[in-house]
Amino acid sequence: MELATKDRFPLPHKGKRGLSCLPCNSKASFAGFELGYAPVPVTLRIAMLAPIAHGFPPPGYGPWEQVAYDLVEGLVELGHDVTVFAAGGGRSSGRLVATVSEPLDGSLLDPRLTEELHVFRAMEAVVENRFDVLHSHLHVHTLGFSRFLPCPMVSTLHGSAWNEVHHPILASYKEQPFVSISESERQFLPDLNYVATVHNGIDLELFPLRERKEDFLLFAGRMAPEKAPDLAIQVARRTGRRLLLAGLIEPKYRGYFDAEIKPRLGEGIDYVGEAQRPELAELLGKAAALLMPLRWAEPFGLVVVEGFAAGTPVVAWRDGAMPELVLEGVNGFLVSGVEEASAAVERVGDLDPIAIHASARDRFSRSAMAAGYAAVYERLVNAKIR
Q1: pTM value?
Q2: b or e along 156-189 (b: 16 or more beta carbons within 10 Å of the residue's beta carbon)?
Q3: Distance (Å, rounded) from C-alpha 30 to C-alpha 124?
Protein backbone atom coordinates (compact mmCIF):
# COMPACT_ATOMS: atom_id res chain seq x y z
CA MET A 1 0.00 0.00 0.00
CA GLU A 2 1.37 3.35 -1.03
CA LEU A 3 0.10 6.74 0.00
CA ALA A 4 0.19 9.95 -1.93
CA THR A 5 3.21 12.10 -1.22
CA LYS A 6 4.65 15.15 -2.86
CA ASP A 7 7.36 12.98 -4.43
CA ARG A 8 5.02 10.38 -5.87
CA PHE A 9 2.39 12.84 -7.08
CA PRO A 10 4.11 15.89 -8.62
CA LEU A 11 2.19 19.04 -7.85
CA PRO A 12 0.82 21.19 -10.64
CA HIS A 13 2.77 24.41 -11.05
CA LYS A 14 0.84 27.55 -10.30
CA GLY A 15 2.49 29.36 -13.19
CA LYS A 16 1.47 26.62 -15.59
CA ARG A 17 -2.16 26.48 -14.57
CA GLY A 18 -2.61 30.07 -13.40
CA LEU A 19 -4.74 28.75 -10.56
CA SER A 20 -4.33 27.24 -7.14
CA CYS A 21 -6.85 25.63 -4.81
CA LEU A 22 -9.25 27.95 -3.09
CA PRO A 23 -9.36 27.94 0.71
CA CYS A 24 -12.64 26.66 2.07
CA ASN A 25 -12.52 27.59 5.76
CA SER A 26 -15.19 30.26 5.31
CA LYS A 27 -18.82 29.38 5.77
CA ALA A 28 -19.72 32.01 3.20
CA SER A 29 -17.48 30.53 0.53
CA PHE A 30 -20.22 28.50 -1.09
CA ALA A 31 -23.34 30.43 -0.13
CA GLY A 32 -25.16 31.35 -3.30
CA PHE A 33 -22.23 30.15 -5.45
CA GLU A 34 -21.17 33.63 -6.46
CA LEU A 35 -19.04 33.08 -9.53
CA GLY A 36 -15.76 34.78 -10.24
CA TYR A 37 -14.29 35.67 -13.60
CA ALA A 38 -11.19 33.52 -13.59
CA PRO A 39 -11.19 30.95 -16.41
CA VAL A 40 -11.70 27.32 -15.47
CA PRO A 41 -8.58 25.21 -16.08
CA VAL A 42 -8.81 22.83 -19.02
CA THR A 43 -7.86 19.95 -16.76
CA LEU A 44 -9.06 19.77 -13.17
CA ARG A 45 -7.05 17.95 -10.51
CA ILE A 46 -9.72 15.99 -8.68
CA ALA A 47 -9.41 13.91 -5.50
CA MET A 48 -12.14 11.27 -5.28
CA LEU A 49 -12.82 9.70 -1.89
CA ALA A 50 -14.58 6.42 -2.57
CA PRO A 51 -16.48 4.20 -0.14
CA ILE A 52 -14.69 1.02 0.92
CA ALA A 53 -17.55 -1.27 1.94
CA HIS A 54 -17.14 -3.17 -1.34
CA GLY A 55 -14.58 -3.49 -4.10
CA PHE A 56 -13.71 -0.72 -6.55
CA PRO A 57 -15.53 -1.51 -8.74
CA PRO A 58 -17.69 -4.03 -6.87
CA PRO A 59 -18.15 -7.45 -8.50
CA GLY A 60 -21.74 -7.54 -7.29
CA TYR A 61 -23.61 -5.37 -4.82
CA GLY A 62 -22.04 -2.00 -4.06
CA PRO A 63 -23.97 0.87 -5.66
CA TRP A 64 -21.98 3.71 -4.06
CA GLU A 65 -18.67 2.18 -5.12
CA GLN A 66 -20.05 1.51 -8.60
CA VAL A 67 -21.19 5.10 -9.05
CA ALA A 68 -17.84 6.44 -7.81
CA TYR A 69 -15.99 4.08 -10.15
CA ASP A 70 -18.05 5.08 -13.19
CA LEU A 71 -17.69 8.73 -12.28
CA VAL A 72 -13.89 8.45 -12.20
CA GLU A 73 -13.90 6.66 -15.55
CA GLY A 74 -16.11 9.32 -17.05
CA LEU A 75 -14.00 12.18 -15.68
CA VAL A 76 -10.82 10.62 -17.06
CA GLU A 77 -12.53 10.24 -20.43
CA LEU A 78 -13.25 13.99 -20.28
CA GLY A 79 -9.54 14.63 -19.78
CA HIS A 80 -9.43 15.40 -16.06
CA ASP A 81 -6.65 14.30 -13.69
CA VAL A 82 -8.32 12.11 -11.07
CA THR A 83 -6.81 10.52 -7.99
CA VAL A 84 -9.15 8.08 -6.28
CA PHE A 85 -8.69 6.94 -2.69
CA ALA A 86 -10.16 3.46 -2.33
CA ALA A 87 -9.57 0.02 -0.86
CA GLY A 88 -6.78 -2.18 -2.16
CA GLY A 89 -7.38 -4.69 -4.93
CA GLY A 90 -9.30 -2.23 -7.09
CA ARG A 91 -8.66 -0.77 -10.50
CA SER A 92 -9.20 2.59 -12.14
CA SER A 93 -8.26 4.60 -15.22
CA GLY A 94 -7.37 7.35 -12.77
CA ARG A 95 -4.56 7.26 -10.20
CA LEU A 96 -5.70 4.76 -7.55
CA VAL A 97 -4.32 5.13 -4.03
CA ALA A 98 -5.06 2.18 -1.73
CA THR A 99 -5.54 3.62 1.75
CA VAL A 100 -6.42 0.21 3.25
CA SER A 101 -5.52 -3.26 2.07
CA GLU A 102 -8.99 -4.57 1.20
CA PRO A 103 -12.67 -3.62 1.22
CA LEU A 104 -14.69 -4.09 4.37
CA ASP A 105 -16.79 -6.94 2.95
CA GLY A 106 -13.67 -9.12 2.74
CA SER A 107 -11.88 -7.93 5.84
CA LEU A 108 -11.64 -9.26 9.38
CA LEU A 109 -10.56 -5.86 10.69
CA ASP A 110 -12.83 -3.57 12.69
CA PRO A 111 -14.97 -1.82 10.04
CA ARG A 112 -15.31 1.46 11.90
CA LEU A 113 -11.60 1.82 12.58
CA THR A 114 -10.74 0.73 9.04
CA GLU A 115 -13.01 3.38 7.56
CA GLU A 116 -11.50 6.01 9.86
CA LEU A 117 -8.03 5.00 8.71
CA HIS A 118 -9.22 5.30 5.10
CA VAL A 119 -10.47 8.82 5.71
CA PHE A 120 -7.39 9.92 7.71
CA ARG A 121 -4.93 8.72 5.08
CA ALA A 122 -6.90 10.26 2.24
CA MET A 123 -7.13 13.60 4.03
CA GLU A 124 -3.40 13.61 4.70
CA ALA A 125 -2.80 13.13 0.99
CA VAL A 126 -5.26 15.89 0.08
CA VAL A 127 -3.44 18.29 2.42
CA GLU A 128 -0.02 17.33 1.01
CA ASN A 129 -1.04 17.61 -2.64
CA ARG A 130 -2.51 20.48 -4.59
CA PHE A 131 -5.93 19.35 -5.77
CA ASP A 132 -8.54 21.66 -7.23
CA VAL A 133 -11.41 19.87 -5.50
CA LEU A 134 -12.17 16.90 -3.27
CA HIS A 135 -15.31 14.86 -3.89
CA SER A 136 -16.42 12.72 -0.94
CA HIS A 137 -18.83 9.79 -1.15
CA LEU A 138 -18.61 9.10 2.60
CA HIS A 139 -21.45 11.38 3.82
CA VAL A 140 -20.91 12.47 7.46
CA HIS A 141 -17.50 10.85 7.93
CA THR A 142 -15.53 13.55 6.13
CA LEU A 143 -17.46 16.73 6.93
CA GLY A 144 -15.36 17.50 10.01
CA PHE A 145 -12.33 18.05 7.76
CA SER A 146 -14.11 20.26 5.23
CA ARG A 147 -13.28 23.64 6.81
CA PHE A 148 -9.58 22.85 7.18
CA LEU A 149 -8.74 21.55 3.72
CA PRO A 150 -6.72 23.54 1.19
CA CYS A 151 -9.35 23.01 -1.50
CA PRO A 152 -13.17 22.82 -1.69
CA MET A 153 -14.91 19.58 -0.76
CA VAL A 154 -18.25 18.55 -2.22
CA SER A 155 -20.24 15.60 -0.88
CA THR A 156 -22.67 13.18 -2.48
CA LEU A 157 -24.81 11.61 0.23
CA HIS A 158 -26.30 8.75 -1.83
CA GLY A 159 -29.51 8.95 0.17
CA SER A 160 -27.81 8.55 3.54
CA ALA A 161 -29.65 11.58 4.97
CA TRP A 162 -32.73 9.36 5.32
CA ASN A 163 -31.08 8.14 8.52
CA GLU A 164 -31.96 10.79 11.12
CA VAL A 165 -28.96 9.77 13.23
CA HIS A 166 -26.85 11.66 10.68
CA HIS A 167 -28.87 14.86 10.87
CA PRO A 168 -27.03 16.65 13.71
CA ILE A 169 -23.68 16.32 11.92
CA LEU A 170 -25.14 17.25 8.55
CA ALA A 171 -26.86 20.26 10.09
CA SER A 172 -23.56 21.40 11.63
CA TYR A 173 -22.00 21.54 8.17
CA LYS A 174 -25.06 22.46 6.14
CA GLU A 175 -23.27 25.37 4.44
CA GLN A 176 -20.85 22.97 2.76
CA PRO A 177 -21.73 22.04 -0.85
CA PHE A 178 -23.78 18.89 -1.43
CA VAL A 179 -24.92 17.26 -4.66
CA SER A 180 -28.18 15.33 -4.66
CA ILE A 181 -28.60 12.27 -6.89
CA SER A 182 -32.26 13.17 -7.43
CA GLU A 183 -34.53 16.06 -6.61
CA SER A 184 -36.44 13.64 -4.38
CA GLU A 185 -33.37 12.93 -2.25
CA ARG A 186 -33.46 16.49 -0.94
CA GLN A 187 -36.63 15.82 1.03
CA PHE A 188 -34.60 13.82 3.57
CA LEU A 189 -32.90 17.04 4.76
CA PRO A 190 -34.04 20.09 2.77
CA ASP A 191 -31.87 22.66 4.61
CA LEU A 192 -28.54 21.46 3.23
CA ASN A 193 -26.68 23.56 0.67
CA TYR A 194 -27.56 21.53 -2.41
CA VAL A 195 -25.62 23.09 -5.26
CA ALA A 196 -26.80 20.71 -7.98
CA THR A 197 -28.65 17.51 -8.76
CA VAL A 198 -26.66 15.02 -10.82
CA HIS A 199 -28.37 11.75 -11.66
CA ASN A 200 -26.30 8.59 -11.39
CA GLY A 201 -24.87 7.29 -14.63
CA ILE A 202 -23.76 3.86 -15.80
CA ASP A 203 -21.47 2.24 -18.34
CA LEU A 204 -24.04 1.47 -21.02
CA GLU A 205 -21.80 -1.13 -22.64
CA LEU A 206 -22.13 -3.40 -19.60
CA PHE A 207 -25.90 -3.61 -20.10
CA PRO A 208 -26.35 -4.19 -23.85
CA LEU A 209 -29.71 -3.73 -25.49
CA ARG A 210 -31.66 -6.94 -26.00
CA GLU A 211 -34.81 -6.54 -28.06
CA ARG A 212 -36.24 -10.04 -27.69
CA LYS A 213 -37.46 -10.66 -24.17
CA GLU A 214 -38.40 -13.80 -22.29
CA ASP A 215 -41.61 -14.24 -20.33
CA PHE A 216 -40.42 -13.69 -16.76
CA LEU A 217 -40.41 -10.81 -14.33
CA LEU A 218 -37.33 -9.73 -12.39
CA PHE A 219 -36.80 -8.19 -8.98
CA ALA A 220 -33.17 -7.13 -8.48
CA GLY A 221 -32.23 -5.52 -5.18
CA ARG A 222 -31.53 -6.15 -1.54
CA MET A 223 -33.88 -8.56 0.19
CA ALA A 224 -35.04 -5.86 2.58
CA PRO A 225 -38.47 -4.67 3.77
CA GLU A 226 -38.05 -1.20 2.24
CA LYS A 227 -37.23 -2.77 -1.13
CA ALA A 228 -40.40 -4.90 -0.82
CA PRO A 229 -39.64 -8.07 -2.78
CA ASP A 230 -42.72 -9.57 -1.10
CA LEU A 231 -44.84 -7.13 -3.13
CA ALA A 232 -43.10 -8.29 -6.30
CA ILE A 233 -44.17 -11.83 -5.42
CA GLN A 234 -47.77 -10.65 -5.10
CA VAL A 235 -47.61 -9.10 -8.57
CA ALA A 236 -46.19 -12.29 -10.03
CA ARG A 237 -48.94 -14.40 -8.43
CA ARG A 238 -51.67 -12.07 -9.69
CA THR A 239 -50.35 -12.08 -13.25
CA GLY A 240 -49.34 -15.74 -13.38
CA ARG A 241 -45.81 -14.79 -14.43
CA ARG A 242 -42.58 -16.42 -13.41
CA LEU A 243 -40.53 -14.20 -11.08
CA LEU A 244 -36.80 -14.27 -10.42
CA LEU A 245 -35.54 -12.59 -7.25
CA ALA A 246 -31.88 -11.55 -7.34
CA GLY A 247 -30.16 -9.71 -4.53
CA LEU A 248 -28.14 -9.61 -1.35
CA ILE A 249 -29.54 -10.89 1.95
CA GLU A 250 -27.96 -8.75 4.64
CA PRO A 251 -27.61 -10.41 8.06
CA LYS A 252 -29.97 -7.89 9.66
CA TYR A 253 -32.69 -8.81 7.18
CA ARG A 254 -32.29 -12.58 7.33
CA GLY A 255 -35.38 -12.77 9.55
CA TYR A 256 -37.43 -10.80 7.02
CA PHE A 257 -36.31 -13.08 4.20
CA ASP A 258 -37.03 -16.25 6.17
CA ALA A 259 -40.48 -15.04 7.23
CA GLU A 260 -41.73 -13.15 4.17
CA ILE A 261 -39.87 -14.46 1.13
CA LYS A 262 -38.64 -18.00 1.65
CA PRO A 263 -42.10 -19.50 2.41
CA ARG A 264 -43.44 -18.00 -0.85
CA LEU A 265 -40.77 -19.47 -3.11
CA GLY A 266 -41.60 -22.22 -5.56
CA GLU A 267 -44.25 -22.58 -8.23
CA GLY A 268 -42.60 -20.06 -10.51
CA ILE A 269 -41.03 -17.85 -7.82
CA ASP A 270 -37.28 -18.42 -7.56
CA TYR A 271 -34.53 -16.75 -5.54
CA VAL A 272 -31.30 -16.88 -7.57
CA GLY A 273 -28.98 -15.26 -5.03
CA GLU A 274 -26.83 -12.16 -5.36
CA ALA A 275 -26.11 -11.70 -9.05
CA GLN A 276 -22.66 -10.55 -10.13
CA ARG A 277 -22.70 -7.77 -12.71
CA PRO A 278 -22.47 -9.97 -15.85
CA GLU A 279 -25.24 -12.18 -14.48
CA LEU A 280 -27.35 -9.16 -13.60
CA ALA A 281 -26.89 -7.74 -17.10
CA GLU A 282 -28.06 -11.01 -18.61
CA LEU A 283 -31.10 -11.18 -16.35
CA LEU A 284 -32.03 -7.59 -17.07
CA GLY A 285 -31.66 -8.13 -20.80
CA LYS A 286 -33.90 -11.20 -20.85
CA ALA A 287 -36.63 -10.07 -18.43
CA ALA A 288 -40.02 -9.00 -19.75
CA ALA A 289 -40.05 -6.33 -17.04
CA LEU A 290 -38.19 -5.20 -13.96
CA LEU A 291 -40.37 -4.74 -10.89
CA MET A 292 -39.47 -1.89 -8.53
CA PRO A 293 -41.82 -2.04 -5.53
CA LEU A 294 -40.99 0.33 -2.68
CA ARG A 295 -41.78 1.03 0.95
CA TRP A 296 -39.55 4.07 1.18
CA ALA A 297 -38.59 7.16 -0.80
CA GLU A 298 -35.90 5.52 -2.95
CA PRO A 299 -33.34 8.29 -3.67
CA PHE A 300 -32.35 6.84 -7.04
CA GLY A 301 -32.41 3.13 -7.92
CA LEU A 302 -29.38 2.27 -10.05
CA VAL A 303 -30.89 -1.00 -11.26
CA VAL A 304 -33.72 0.96 -12.88
CA VAL A 305 -31.42 2.72 -15.34
CA GLU A 306 -29.45 -0.50 -15.84
CA GLY A 307 -32.73 -2.06 -16.90
CA PHE A 308 -33.42 0.83 -19.26
CA ALA A 309 -30.00 0.33 -20.87
CA ALA A 310 -30.89 -3.31 -21.56
CA GLY A 311 -34.16 -2.18 -23.17
CA THR A 312 -36.27 -3.59 -20.35
CA PRO A 313 -39.37 -1.75 -19.13
CA VAL A 314 -39.68 -0.94 -15.45
CA VAL A 315 -42.86 -1.11 -13.39
CA ALA A 316 -42.10 1.12 -10.41
CA TRP A 317 -44.02 2.34 -7.40
CA ARG A 318 -44.67 6.07 -7.64
CA ASP A 319 -42.33 7.05 -4.81
CA GLY A 320 -38.95 8.67 -4.24
CA ALA A 321 -36.99 9.31 -7.42
CA MET A 322 -39.07 7.00 -9.61
CA PRO A 323 -41.06 9.83 -11.26
CA GLU A 324 -37.73 11.41 -12.25
CA LEU A 325 -36.50 8.21 -13.91
CA VAL A 326 -39.56 6.56 -15.39
CA LEU A 327 -41.13 8.18 -18.46
CA GLU A 328 -44.70 6.93 -18.38
CA GLY A 329 -45.48 4.77 -21.39
CA VAL A 330 -41.95 5.17 -22.81
CA ASN A 331 -39.58 3.20 -20.59
CA GLY A 332 -42.04 1.90 -18.02
CA PHE A 333 -45.03 2.61 -15.83
CA LEU A 334 -45.55 4.29 -12.46
CA VAL A 335 -48.00 2.57 -10.12
CA SER A 336 -49.40 2.97 -6.63
CA GLY A 337 -49.77 -0.62 -5.53
CA VAL A 338 -49.96 -4.29 -6.42
CA GLU A 339 -53.21 -4.00 -8.37
CA GLU A 340 -51.93 -1.20 -10.62
CA ALA A 341 -48.60 -2.97 -11.02
CA SER A 342 -50.34 -6.15 -12.13
CA ALA A 343 -52.26 -4.22 -14.77
CA ALA A 344 -49.07 -2.49 -15.93
CA VAL A 345 -47.29 -5.83 -16.36
CA GLU A 346 -49.88 -6.77 -18.97
CA ARG A 347 -48.87 -3.66 -20.98
CA VAL A 348 -45.07 -3.91 -20.92
CA GLY A 349 -45.05 -5.71 -24.25
CA ASP A 350 -46.35 -2.52 -25.87
CA LEU A 351 -43.14 -0.63 -25.08
CA ASP A 352 -40.28 -0.44 -27.56
CA PRO A 353 -36.95 -1.78 -26.21
CA ILE A 354 -35.03 0.57 -28.54
CA ALA A 355 -36.84 3.62 -27.14
CA ILE A 356 -36.27 2.33 -23.60
CA HIS A 357 -32.55 1.98 -24.27
CA ALA A 358 -32.46 5.47 -25.77
CA SER A 359 -33.89 6.91 -22.53
CA ALA A 360 -30.85 5.52 -20.68
CA ARG A 361 -28.38 6.59 -23.34
CA ASP A 362 -29.67 10.15 -23.42
CA ARG A 363 -30.06 10.70 -19.66
CA PHE A 364 -28.07 8.21 -17.59
CA SER A 365 -24.71 7.52 -19.24
CA ARG A 366 -21.56 7.82 -17.17
CA SER A 367 -20.37 10.57 -19.52
CA ALA A 368 -23.49 12.61 -18.71
CA MET A 369 -22.90 12.08 -14.99
CA ALA A 370 -19.23 13.05 -15.32
CA ALA A 371 -20.11 16.22 -17.24
CA GLY A 372 -22.62 17.15 -14.55
CA TYR A 373 -20.10 16.76 -11.74
CA ALA A 374 -17.35 18.51 -13.72
CA ALA A 375 -19.63 21.52 -13.99
CA VAL A 376 -20.06 21.48 -10.20
CA TYR A 377 -16.30 21.26 -9.64
CA GLU A 378 -15.70 24.16 -12.00
CA ARG A 379 -18.19 26.32 -10.13
CA LEU A 380 -16.49 25.48 -6.85
CA VAL A 381 -13.04 26.27 -8.17
CA ASN A 382 -14.18 29.59 -9.58
CA ALA A 383 -16.31 30.58 -6.62
CA LYS A 384 -15.41 33.99 -5.26
CA ILE A 385 -14.57 34.14 -1.54
CA ARG A 386 -16.71 36.80 0.12
Answers
A1: 0.87
A2: bbbbbbbeeebbeebeebbbbbbbbbbebbbebb
A3: 23
Q: What is the arithmetic mean of pLDDT over 28-40?
A: 37
What is d(CA 65, CA 25) in angstroms, rounded to the nearest whole number? 28
Angle between helices 302-309 and 277-286 (to 10 degrees): 60
3-state secondary structure of 18: coil
Residues 6+ apart with CB under 8 A from 112: none
Domains along the chain with CATH numbers = 14-201+366-382 (3.40.50.2000), 204-363 (3.40.50.2000)
pLDDT of 167-209, one tens digit each? 999 999 999 999 999 999 999 999 999 999 999 999 999 999 9
Cα dist. 348→212, 308, 313, 329, 353 in Å?
13, 13, 6, 9, 10
Whether the pLDDT of residue 310 is over 50: the answer is yes
pLDDT tens, position by position, 287-297: 999 999 999 99
CA 104 to chain centre: 18
pLDDT in tens, 83-137: 999 999 999 999 999 999 999 998 888 999 999 999 999 999 999 998 999 999 9
Write the CA distances from 96 to 47, 50, 105, 121, integer angstroms: 10, 10, 19, 13
Q: How far apart are CA 266 and CA 269, in angstroms?
A: 5
